[in-house]
Specification:
alpha+beta; 6 helices; 25% helix; globular
């Protein structure tokens, strides 16, 4: 994210990911996006450090260890990604795989984009249309365009 300054009125910074559409959405306080509590993002990331570790880049990234703990209930890796990694050894072991899908709470996206953990890890972010995640959907049950947030996190019904 390239926003700095009080209430995002400050100058753009070269720090952070390339995310023109996301920058625009934050600048306009999401008023031109459809309703939905969660924002789907396709992100490209800097592979997390892994000295002496067998896991590949994507497998390490989805642990979210790179993320500031204050956002742990606001960022979700879709089960579709988690299952693909588990079932596909080439994905699990690849050191070069550097993109992933994320769900981010709409109300926390601005704070997340300004956070140092985001800026040092995310290289680019493409925003999709907001959605509402289904309440009560089991971790193993996925429906088209729906994912389950982490345990203890519930989406708001609209």
């Amino acid at each position: 994210m390239s926003l700095v300054g009080k209430e995002h009125g400050g100058p753009k910074s070269p720090e952070g990911p390339d995310a023109a559409y996301l920058d625009w959405a934050i600048d306009t306080k999401f008023r031109y996006l459809r309703e939905g509590d969660w924002l789907p993002l396709l992100v490209r990331f800097k592979p997390p450090a892994a000295e002496g570790e067998e896991a590949g880049s994507l497998e390490r990234f989805i642990r979210l260890d790179w993320l500031n703990k204050s956002f742990e209930n606001d960022v979700v890796i879709p089960d579709l990604i988690r299952r693909a990694i588990k079932r596909t050894p080439s994905l699990r072991q690849s050191k070069q795989f550097d993109f992933c899908a994320l769900w981010v709470r709409r109300e926390r996206m601005t704070d997340l984009a300004l956070d140092a953990s985001w800026k040092r890890t995310i290289l680019s972010a493409d925003l999709g249309p907001p959605i509402n995640l289904a309440d009560g959907l089991g971790r193993s049950g996925i429906h088209l365009n729906v994912a389950q947030p982490p345990e203890g996190v519930r989406s708001k019904s609209r």
